[in-house]
Amino acid sequence: MAKKSSITRDEKRAKLIAKYAEKRAELKKKGDLVALQALPLNSSPSRLKNRCFLSGRSRGYMRDFGINRIEFRKLANEGKIPGVKKASW
User: Fold this and answer.
1) CA torsion sign, 67 to 18 to 14 to 38?
2) Do 38 and 54 lie in a common domain?
3) Could you tell me the pLDDT band of residue 86, with boundaries at 50, 70 and 90?
4) DSSP 81
5) Shared-domain flag, residues 57 and 70
6) Residues of the domain holding 15
7) CA 23 – CA 20 distance, rounded (Å)
8) CA 27 to CA 68: how far, in whole Å?
9) pLDDT at 87 over 90
10) Helix, strand, or coil here: 8?
11) pLDDT tens digits, 25-71
């Protein structure tokens, strides 16, 4: 489980990104780089980190499933992910 502060920080960033998305797109369209730099740093979409929704872990994140590799393996072995089974050859 990730630290609560890391998860909270990412949630706060997601809110800022949503808040400034329209304004950021408008400034990019105009080409106003000075005003774009005046926006909060955490309002940039590239600052958002993908996190597992089960454990909050950021490393080993699998975008297709929204979980990390450890949780993926656990759920796949239990048969809880449709269409996924253990490979054997």
Assistant:
1) positive
2) no
3) confident
4) S
5) yes
6) 1-49
7) 5
8) 35
9) no
10) helix
11) 999 999 999 999 999 999 999 999 999 999 999 999 999 999 999 99
pTM of the model: 0.78
Q: Based on the domain organization, do 21 and 57 belong to the same domain?
A: no
Does 6 fall in a domain? Answer: yes
Cβ atoms within 10 Å, residue 86: 8
Q: Are 68 and 59 in contact (CB under 8 A)?
A: yes
Q: At CA 66, angle to CA 87 and CA 4, rounded to 5? A: 125
Whether 22 contacts 41, CB under 8 Å: no
Structurally, the chain folds into a number of domains equal to 2
Q: Looking at residues 81-87, what average pLDDT do you find?
A: 88
Phi and psi dihedrals of 58, rounded to 5?
-100, -25
Radius of gyration of the chain from Cα atoms?
Answer: 18
